C-alpha cells in the first residue's frame, strides 16, 4: 500500500534479517525501559482503555462476570511489570496497587506474545514452565478457559500482523 507521498509502507516496515534475529532479546528490554519511565496513572489509563475496547462484547455478554469483585494479576517477570485487573460495574479496571490477588499469572514477555498471537496455547506454555497460574482454583479454571477462547480477530489487522511476525522470530 502506498502512502500519500508514494512510499510503500510495507517495504519500510520490513526488518532486516540481521536485526530480526536479535529482536526477541531487544524488544522486552525496550518495553521494560518505556514502562519504567511511563507514569503509573498513564499505564493504568491505557490498560483500562484497551481492555474495555477489545473486550466490550465479552463484558456485555457476561463472559467476564467471573471476574466481578475478583482480582487477576499478570506479572511479566523479565520486564518487571505487573498489573491487577478486576471487573466492576461492567468495566474492566486495572488497579493502581493491589498486594494480593485471587489469581496470579506469571510469565515473561515472549511467551505472552506467543499466547496472544495464538502460536502457543496456555497448556503448552504451562507444561513448558513458561507460564504459571496460581490462586483460587475455580477462578484459575475460568481464566484459563477465557484465555483459550480469546478471539485473535478482535485485534486490529496491523496489530495481528505485528504479533504474528514477531512470534515467528521468537
UniProtKB/TrEMBL annotation:
This is SCP2 domain-containing protein. Residues 56-148 form the SCP2 domain. It comes from Wohlfahrtiimonas larvae. Gene3D superfamilies: SCP2 sterol-binding domain. It comes from the Bacteria. The lineage of its organism: Bacteria, Pseudomonadati, Pseudomonadota, Gammaproteobacteria, Cardiobacteriales. InterPro entries: SCP2_sterol-bd_dom, SCP2_sterol-bd_dom_sf.
Amino acid at each position: 500500500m502506498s502512502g500519500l507521498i508514494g512510499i510503500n509502507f510495507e517495504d519500510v516496515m520490513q526488518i532486516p534479517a540481521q536485526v530480526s534475529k536479535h529482536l526477541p532479546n531487544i524488544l522486552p528490554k525496550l518495553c521494560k525501559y518505556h514502562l519504567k519511565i511511563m507514569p503509573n496513572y498513564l499505564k493504568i489509563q491505557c490498560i483500562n482503555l484497551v481492555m474495555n475496547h477489545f473486550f466490550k462484547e465479552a463484558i456485555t455478554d457476561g463472559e467476564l462476570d467471573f471476574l466481578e469483585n475478583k482480582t487477576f494479576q499478570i506479572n511479566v517477570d523479565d520486564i518487571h511489570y505487573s498489573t491487577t485487573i478486576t471487573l466492576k460495574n461492567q468495566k474492566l479496571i486495572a488497579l493502581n496497587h493491589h498486594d494480593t490477588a485471587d489469581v496470579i499469572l506469571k510469565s515473561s514477555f515472549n511467551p505472552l506474545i506467543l499466547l496472544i498471537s495464538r502460536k502457543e496455547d496456555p497448556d503448552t506454555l504451562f507444561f513448558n514452565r513458561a507460564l504459571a497460574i496460581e490462586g483460587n482454583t475455580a477462578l484459575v479454571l475460568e481464566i484459563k478457559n477465557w484465555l483459550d477462547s480469546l478471539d485473535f480477530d478482535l485485534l486490529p489487522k496491523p496489530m495481528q500482523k505485528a504479533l504474528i511476525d514477531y512470534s515467528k522470530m521468537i
